[in-house]
Amino acid sequence: MFDNSYARLPERFYVRVDPARVPAPALLAWNKELAQDLDLHGLSGPDHKLAQVFSGNEIPADAEPIALAYAGHQFGHFVPQLGDGRAVLLGEVIGGKGRRHDVQLKGSGQTPFSRNGDGKSSLGPVIREYLVSEAMHRLGVRTTRALAAVTTGETVYRDTALPGAVFTRVASSHVRIGTFEFFAARGDQDAVKTLADYAIARHYPLARDEPRPYRAFFRQVLERQAALIAHWMDVGFIHGVMNTDNTSIAGETIDYGPCAFMDEFQVDKVFSSIDREGRYAYGHQAAIAHWNLARLAECLLLLDDDQHAFEEELGRFPILFHDQYYTRMRRKLGLTTEEPDDESLIEEWLQYLQNEGLDYTLSFRRLAARICADEPSEFGAVERKWKRRIENQPQAAADIQARMDSVNPLFIPRNHQVEKAIEGAIAGDLSTFEELLKVLKQPFQEQLELARYAEPPLPEQRVTRTFCGT
Ligand code: AMP
Ligand code: MG
Q1: Which amino acid residue places its CA nearest to atom 10 of ligand 1?
Q2: Ligand 1 pocket, 119 CB below 6 A?
Q3: Which residues, given as ranges, of the chain have pLDDT below 50?
């Protein structure tokens, strides 16, 4: 069932390592739909069997567990060796549509890259990544997926003693900008070339036939990043640790540590407890992606030394991002035609939300509902301006409202609900986790019996800080 292309790369790309054995694995969640999509027939079975496999206790046939080497810029500072310190790649599967995916265990014990860490994960980060990555997928955002969550029967020690757990992540690959940096920093041009050729074959096969394949590869990675960050902004997502080791070459959202969705709109919003200077604030994410891409360009210069050409490609990023971002914002506001003042209308709307401390997600739904309402307006002057603007459009009001509702979610994984799901799971109660998972499967749909999950936090429910999963 597994076909492990990464394990066939040169030995300096990874270390072979077996997951640690755990005492009492129990299945917490199993993403059957994803397993079906990926054709994981060989892995299906009763819960206790799945728990053995997705805790790392049983290695499936053909799996070749490896920990991947990578480096990365963390908060702007280069760290020449990071690597999978608490994760192992079990292997790769090729799904029904011919697409190759990594299946990775996260929290499965120490590897040679663990440094001082225990290689384990506590239950909280596992629940968080499961919920948020699946929600992102249902919102249409490119992301790694959640295949399984298992508790281990172990206790792991962070600030307090917590139940241990293992998360199984599915990704288009785990090649990161930091993987390129690992080899480039060692002056290992052969490895950079091997990695680039591998990434091209796996993710951007058309680049191979371009006259300048590495430049074409870079251009496509850059385009995907621009689209991805615009999509994050669209749904109010703050990644929180946009280090180069957390930047996927495939253009997926990866590494759900201190990430969060905004409740009330604030352009410089930060949740992560370790992001003291707001480097990875909501409104700063495009600039950071651009900076991260410059680090990738530096690596690729080892293969194609036309610096000017790479600078030109990099220079397109702000323009591409701007286009993607405003295209999304226009759709969110129901603008189907293009007018010169649209961008300033969008800015005015967001400024209004920020000044009034309004909920980002729900305000777009409420605005859509205003379309057939009479004065007085709920959102002041900006609403009246918006109304005059959409009156110039050919579509009927109900049509515009339906279009808006189809791109503006009602349900997002709000922090206070995610925290509640985590607290519940630690106490052995999975009801919030399961209800949230259910409601987030259809984030654009009204769901009357679960409507409370759409609500922003009450003042006493507000979560202001999130923490890394370590
Ligand atoms: P992250 O902040 O999750 O992207 O992780 C950064 C680096 O720290 C990676 O090399 C991880 O493998 C490593 N790391 C994080 N948590 C642990 C842990 N509990 N044990 C060992 N290594 C860890
Ligand atoms: Mg990481």
Answers
A1: 82
A2: yes
A3: none
